[in-house]
Amino acid sequence: MTEYGRGSGSQPWNPGDPHYGDQGYEGGQYPPQHPSQHAQQQPYYGQQQHPEQQQYGWDAAQDGSGHAAPGGYYGAGGGYPQAYDTGQQPIPQGQQPYDTGQHPHVQGQQSYDTGQQPHLQGQQPYDTGQHPYVQGQQTYDTGQHPVPQGQQFPQQPAPAGEQPHEEWADGSSTGTQPLLSKTEAAPVSSPAIDLLPGGGGDDEDDEPRRGRRVGKGKKAPKRRSGTACLVVAVVLLGVVGGGGYLAYDYWQTNYGPAPDYEGEGSGQVQVEVAKGSGLTQIGDALQKKGVVKSARAFTEAANGKLIQPGTYTLNKEMSAASAVTMMTDTKNLLTLREGIRAAAVYTAIDQKLGLSPGTTKGVAHSQAKNLGLPAWATASSDVKDPLEGFLFPSQYNAGKGTKPEEILRQMVARAVKNYGEQDLEGKARELGLKSPLQVITVASLVQVEGKYKHDFDKISRVVYNRLKPDNKETYGLLDFDSTVNYAKSQSTLDTGSVNDLRKFDDPYNTYKIKGLPPGPISNPGMDALKSALEPASGPWYYFVSINENETLFAVTNAEHNKNRERYNQEHKKAGQ
Q1: pTM of the predicted structure, to 2 decimals
Q2: How far is CA 313 from CA 270, 272, 567, in A?
Q3: β-bridge mates for residue 313, sequence order
Q4: 63-67: long-range contacts at Cβ-Cβ below 8 A with a sequence spacing of 24 or more?
């Protein structure tokens, strides 16, 4: 249908719709075109010749009279530009016409009216699968379509109301021409077109940039959520801040000044330094107890000084230098040797703290039950001192202001801890002893009778052999001078004759009382305790130490007497 109301396209023409082109003069229709004009087609490229270029747009077809149809572009009939009606409607600038499968010849700003719909520059036609051939500034529709390399064409033209297919502006294939010329024609503008939506304005750039897609409207950019941006910023800030903090902490820990308290602190806490502990281990223990602020501060303050193993009473939150002073200054330290008696410990504490003689002994007897002794420590009423064997030999802090009960409590706590690690109750049953207290008693005898640690295991075996009630050498008697000395509160080698000793009436006199004394006679160390728990195997009943490197053990009394003669000879040579 090519009448006024409908063109060759698929859509109806609505005179009142501004989107369908200029309505002509006073809304009038375009003059009708002869049918011959509809049939006339643009010659194919490569045929005879092309119409000459004209200054004004002109329809090469003529009306029925043989004259050119009036009303060409820039005609004298009116102020608005007007094209010859070919039975099809012109598409105003800024609109998207439906592509009927034909494309106009484009050359500069001049076009030949071939009876097809003119496409105005800057508009984006729907792609129907046919493309104009462009060379230079002249384009002839050959009816054939070069396929640019790498470009895919849609199968069907887009129906009305749907999004058109995309078409590339740049041709990239070899041997074919690009779809659009490099030099675009100036956009056609008129007052009528300017009034249409999107037409004739200068506010927008209607010329697509090279390499961009045309034919499909751009979607509005998605608006980024402010909350998402805030979250990302917070996360980034956290990462940067966290990394900075870790770097700073690493620098401070390894290269910066070591964190440290100031002053001598306040309050008291007990810290145990095990045998063989290094400065770093000691510093870690002090930091855990809250004495120093950092282990590194302590090691730097110690500067290689020797810290003796033992239990120290220190203040909380004190400077590392003050802690080192309290742990190394002999004025603040009390060291107990292995095998020392409780009475000697009380005297040493009085002297260290500047107390009157007997002060610590009185505290020990009056507060023995409050110092942390285990229940089995007072199993016998004949025990002379319940703290004997529980004042563990080590080094203790006894600085100015320390009370005697505090030091005693530290000693008992250290002993209970070490004893508890040895399973004394189980070992006592294996060894045929009645209680853990008897294990400590054996250890105290080994500690005093043995002068050298390498003899402890054999001496422990001598003790257990003599305790056998059916033995034919001692008949269950220990016969140790050390027990007599303890009972008499003395320390001498001249204890008297055996006959006189057997007359001495005391529960600790092993020359008269069979078996073990009621309790320990000294405060043994860990070496003597382990020997008491694991004695060597042997039939020995007697022993005598000739010198540091030699101790003689015997099975019979006669053999033992020969060993004693040698002992006397060696002592005479040494001038003893």
Answers
A1: 0.56
A2: 5, 9, 45
A3: 270
A4: 63/34, 64/34, 64/36
